[in-house]
Amino acid sequence: LQYMIEKVGIIDGSIDSESAYKKLMSNEAKDSSGLGNGVAVPHLFIDELDQTIIAIARIPKGIDFRAIDNKPVHLVCLILSNPESYKFHLSLLANFARKFQIPTFMDEILKARSKKSVLSMLFDGDDSSIH
Fold first, then answer.
1. Inter-residue contact 93 to 41 (CB < 8 Å)
2. Are 39 and 30 in contact (CB under 8 A)?
3. DSSP secondary structure code for residue 47 in this structure
4. How far apart are CA 8 and CA 55, in angstroms?
5. Stretch (H or E) spanning 34
6. Is pTM, for the whole model, over 0.70?
7. d(CA 75, CA 66)
8. pLDDT of 23-79, one tens digit each?
9. What letter does residue 72 receive in the DSSP assignment?
10. CA-based angle 43:27:60, to the nearest 5?
């Protein structure tokens, strides 16, 4: 998560990477965002953001994320949003949670050969507003 937050901070200078990481880890300490089926969707509201940012990391060997099924996480979908975008933020969480309940979906994501393929799968082919 620290690596992901640092990379996002490089792309969007409005993010205080250190502060965001501390908040994210505090949230994770309270309740893991590991949904099971090899996926985690950590998320955070950041006042300074003017857009929602999604960072995705594939981890073929898996990592311990204290997921609800106690299995390693192979995909992390980090969602960062401004608090005013909470409806969109919640819809993303619901969309990801729904998709990752499909048993074959994780295999398809992990086998994807490009960022565009992953985004297309996550957003049902409508990734036109995603950069």
1. yes
2. no
3. T
4. 7
5. strand 34-36
6. yes
7. 13
8. 999 999 998 888 888 899 999 999 989 889 999 898 888 899 888 888 999 999 999
9. P
10. 60
